[in-house]
Amino acid sequence: MDGSVILLSLGAVALVVVGLLVAMVRRLLFVSNPNQVLIFSGTTRQRDGAVLGYRFVRGGRSLRKPIVEAVDSMDLSMFTVDVNVTGAFSKGGIPLTVQGVANVKLPGEEPLLINAVERFLGRTPREIYFIAKETLEGNLRGVLASLTPEEVNEDKLQFAQKLLEEAEHDMSRMGLVLDTLKIQNVTDEVNYLASIGRIRGATLNMEQAVAEAQARADALVQQALNWSGSQVAKLDADLKVAREETSKRIADAKSRREALIGEAEGEVLAEVAQTRAEVERQKARAPREKRRLDADVIQPALARQRAAEQKAQGDAASIIERGRAEAESLRQLVQAYRGGGPSSPEMVALQHVLPLLSELSGASHKLTIESLSVLPQSSSASDLSLKWIRAGEELKAATGIDLSQIAKRLGGEAPPASSSEPPAGRPKA
């Protein structure tokens, strides 16, 4: 029994503790709806270098720190603001009455949410509505002052867009978001727009009359164009006929040209055939003329060539034989010169001088006789000795060479001192 009582007591205590915990959590846990933002104030946080004493929870849940934090909420639902401006002066000084509607809401993201919290936390929705309404009406008056009544009435979309751009700046600074802005009606108390309508009607009537006149003028122009088109078509037909005639003349001229070309080609071909026949005739004459030239010119020239070659060969043979004989004589002379001893130079000189005795003796020149040797006619003297003495005297008289002295030297005798010298005043040549 005592154990059961203790267990029941412990269970009751546990239930009490759990209940207290649940009650505490329910008091400290806050849940935010999607169109609601919770502001937990009392703790600090850093944002862009600035210190904020609150934090936001949007579309979620968070626990409030006991004692140090307080929780407030703001509705982010959109609300409609009726914008009505009466007697707002437009550009040009015309008062206008404008009716419009705008959809406004509190922002759900920072930094616009910070501006909204700082300005509208603790304010009622009606107060926020009037603040937005006054702000939009002030912006509307500012935009109207920059537009003419015609611009406001004719292009409401452009007017609303310009008003939206003008109002967004002020609304963002206050922490409000302007979703849409529509202009519903634009009127004036001085019937300016009605006058503009009448003017526009008159303008339309004038434009209609102008269009009608333009249509009549276009009809006249079209009529003139049709007439000119018919005239052009007629001229085109005449031009086509003229072209056909010209083509016919050109074809006739071409046919005549072909005939003339054929005739000229025939004449040319006849001349070509005649020329070719003449060429063939000349080709036929060429072998006969070649044989004639061979018999009259080439064969005699060949005969003369062969005779000249035979003569040249004979002359060459004689020259070769004479050269061989001279070479042999020179060889023998060299051998004799080498084997003759000291008298070899004088023998060589005599050998070269003896053929020149007739020239050196002065037989072909006029000579002055300075000495005369008379040889006795003796039957005992042979003709050779006489010729030798005569030749020695002629050589001595012409050149001063004394053959007898040379012979004595060859024989070992000393020549007289003055016998080899020519007499004074006697020429040597």
Please identify the top-level CATH class of the domain at 76-190: Alpha Beta
CATH superfamily of the domain at 76-190: Band 7 domain
Shape: elongated
Give the strand tally: 8
Please state how the strands of the largest beta sheet are arranged side by side: 3-2-5
First CA to last CA: what distance? 199 Å
Q: What is the N-to-C order of secondary-structure elements (H for helix, E for strand)? A: HEEEEEEEHHHHEHHHHH
In the predicted model, the low-confidence regions spanning at least 5 consecutive residues are 413-429
**Under CATH, the topology of the domain at 76-190 is which?**
Tetrahydropterin Synthase, Chain A
**Rounded radius of gyration (Å):** 79 Å
Structure description:
- The protein has 429 residues and is an alpha+beta fold.
- Among the domains are: 2-72, no CATH class; 76-190, 2-Layer Sandwich (Tetrahydropterin Synthase, Chain A), CATH 3.30.479.30; 345-363 and 382-429, no CATH class.
- Helix content is 63%, strand content 15%.
- It has 10 helices and 8 strands.
- The strands form 3 sheets. A 3-stranded antiparallel beta sheet has the order 3-2-5, with no helix packed on it. A 3-stranded antiparallel beta sheet has the order 6-7-8.
- Helix 3 (125-144) crosses helix 5 (156-174) and helix 6 (192-339) packs across helix 7.
- The longest helix is centred in the middle third of the chain and has 148 residues, at 192-339.
- The protein is elongated and about 205 Å long.
- It starts with a helix and ends in an 18-residue tail after the last helix.
- Residues 413-429 have low confidence and may be disordered.
